Amino acid sequence: MSLRQSMAGLHTWGGLLPSWLLYVIIFTGTVACFDKELERWMRPALHDDSSAQLTAEGARNWVMANADKDLHAIWMRGPNEREPFWAVHWMTNAGEQGKAMLDPATGAPLAETLGGQFFFTLHYNLHADTLGMYVVGLAGMFMLVALVSGVIIHRRIFKDFFTLRPRANGQRAWLDAHNLFGVVGFPFHLLLAYTGVVVFVASYMPAGGQVAYGNDQEAYFTEVTGSYHREEVGRPAPPAVSLDGLLRDAQARWTGAQPGWIVIEHPLDASAVVAIRRADASRIGDLGGTLSYDAATGELLHVQEQPPFYRAYSWMVGLHMAQFGGTLVRALYLMLGLAGCAMVVAGTRVWLRKREARAVPGVALVRALDGAVYLGLPVASLALLWANRLLPAELPWRASGEGWTFVIAWLAVALWSALARHHWRLALRSQLVLIGLLALGLPLLSLLAAPNGHLLAALPRGDWGLVGVDLALLAIGLIALIQAWRLNPDPVARPARRAPGRLEEAL
Amino acid sequence: MLLVFALCYLGMSGLALAMPRHFRQLRQHEPSGAQQRTLRVLGCAALAIGLGLCVRLLGFQIGLVSWFCLLMLGGLAVSSLLAWRERWTVPAGPVLVALGLLSSVV
Amino acid sequence: MDMTLQTRRLSVASRVLAALVGGYGLAYGCTAFLSVYLPLARPDRVALAGLLCFAVWVVGALYAFGARSATRAWLVIGGLALLTGLCGFLPTELRTRP
Question: Between chains, do A207 and C88 touch, taking CB under 8 Å as contact?
């Protein structure tokens, strides 16, 4: 077997098997480019600009009063333009975790919802904690191998660079599309897959910590990240200095950069440390500069200085997370992420078209999975947004209600695709119509359910975050309906083929 | 930024039309060697100007990343037009540049 | 005929394992090796080794399928993994130098 043949086999099967999982990861990652905008969209309490009243001090006091008594650490993030609320997370010494989002105007927890965070979490661990994180990492490795082997087997990368022949026979057209999205978007796919697996390198590849630090996790993290850590001393903490004063001090030291996450380590112990991280959207990565203060005296203990290659790591993670360069970069990532989805979808279509004519086992399964995942996930995501708008905000189980709506909608589409696998064109068409109606309905539903957040209210305010979500939903709905309308449900009754395009003539 | 995208589009369409296959799509004859070279040089020049502009607007690192993204999207746009609306491929370039100039003035 | 099909299946299964398990082992060994021998300070050695290890795995996985035979793939990938791993873990003094 030649190298190209063996790589072709690797690309075909190593690409097909994880393609549905990769689609889920890429799709949710694409949505998560605007997770914070979605988060606010899903929290109508944050739709009108209200001035922030809750201070850092107030947020800390809320955790102290409401969390368990043996607090190990608190993480808090203050309101900013994209996330106008306080996010607080905490962990107890027993390892139990809790979190809340606090309304900056009232200081009370916001209504339950899964929020835009749902898509981000689905992207990096499939809502399956550590196991999910490893599965996603393995899928990322499959993607890297598929990308590189794809380049090796491609015979005419530059000659076919711009070639797309939608009117050619099915397999040719899908192969063109697969190649086009893969080759033109190659730098993006490769970098995002690589930086994606790099994010959790400490978990995926523990060898470095084991060999160079004798498996001492604490020493490893402190030295590699250049951060500060102080052991507990077992005495109760004296009264803490004002957090807001520390924040002002931090801002003065950074000359301009805003504070990001604030971490309070063992707040009930005399050794308590307040670490204030820097949020700087004008740079690609977090380049350090975290300030560690003594929680009781306010003395500055340590300024984080990242070692050069940890900076390289932070830069790669930053490149993946797209928290720099504002809406422009996120919009570009969104579109290139869609190109990634298109590459995956076109890839499985090539596999199918090549084998449809012969009765190869697995064709029906692949086709059913295509329908179940490629359309099931968008339907389920839209259903989740519907649940968010329909379930009353004060419902204590609204978040889990949204989650169940997502799961049930996805299962329903999966079942539908499996049952209708012999009439898949009809199923595809109806599913596209469903996506169109769900997407177009959401901005209308918001007119009733989000009095300050719907298009007519947000547009005059110039609230582009909310307007953007609604406009995107309208665009998705229209595109889905147009595609459904153009899709001929009965291939036999297809009208005479259009005259071949000039590209086919030119070949 | 629209101007940077316009320049990326222009550059990619220049590179595409420098290939005989796509040149034949729009003109009925083969491109001459000189035409190919001219298209290639003009295409690369447009891309370089776009890169310079993007770096000037957004700084080196973020400018470079954004330009790469715009470059890839420009390539996808050129391919889509060549596939579905081949007659629009060439006029779309100047139209985009005009819109880009207009938006950078406004 | 049956024999050859069976041998081919075994060969493919062996290559898959070489790519997944062997490839990870190779990446693991190389990370340990680089974390010890790179001429850098300890945190930089570990960080840089971590950044490179996935590229090593990708190359290993591609080689598992590109090699002339499955046995050869295992010999090269497994051998290198063992070699780099041993070189990384054996010298205790060198390992933890700052």
Answer: yes
Helical (H) or strand (E) element with A278: strand A273-279
Using a CB–CB cutoff of 8 Å, tell me whether B30 touches chain A.
no
DSSP alpha helices (H): ranges in A33-116? 35-41, 56-66
How many folded domains does chain B comprise? 1
* The three-state (H, E, C) secondary structure of A449-489, written as one string: HCCCCCHHHHHHHCCHHHHHHHHHHHHHHHHHHHHHHHCCC
ipTM beyond cut 0.90:
yes
Is any Cβ of chain A less than 8 angstroms from the Cβ of B52?
Answer: no
Residue C98 confidence (pLDDT): 83
**Mean predicted confidence (pLDDT) in A73-80:** 95
pLDDT in tens, A213-246: 999 999 999 999 999 999 999 999 999 999 999 9
Range(s) of the domain holding residue A424 = 3-41+122-185+328-490
Contacts of C96 in chain A (CB under 8 A): 212-214
**Residue A181 at interface with chain B, using a CB cutoff of 8 Å:** yes
Q: Is C75 on the interface with A (CB under 8 A)?
A: no
Rounded Cα distance, A114 and B4, in Å: 37
Chain B CB within 8 Å of residue A502 CB:
yes
Strand duo A97-102 + A291-294: pairing = unpaired
Q: How far apart are CA A263 and CA A276, in angstroms?
A: 6
User: Does any CB of chain A come closer than 8 Å to the CB of residue C70?
Assistant: no
Cα pseudo-dihedral A350, A355, A360, A366, rounded to 10: 30
**Given a contact as 3+ CB pairs under 8 Å, which chains touch B?**
A
Interface of C with A in 10-49 (CB under 8 A): 19, 27-29, 31-32, 35-36, 40-49
Tokens 């046995």 correspond to what residue? Answer: C71
Three-state DSSP at A75 gives strand
> Does the pLDDT value for residue A73 go beyond 50?
yes
Q: Per-residue pLDDT for A323 more than 90?
A: yes
Q: Coil, helix or strand for A33?
A: coil
- CB of A246 within 8 A of CB of A274? yes
Domain coverage including residue B61: 2-105
Alpha-carbon span B31 to B19, nearest angstrom: 8
C chain contacts of residue A149, beta-carbon cutoff 8 Å: 62, 65
Neighbour count for residue A505 (Cβ, 10 Å):
10
pLDDT number for residue C3: 61
State the Cα–Cα distance between residues C1 and A339, nearest whole angstrom. 44
Q: What domain count does chain A have?
A: 1
In what order do the strands lie in the sheet containing A273-279? A97-102, A86-92, A71-77, A258-265, A273-279, A291-294, A300-303
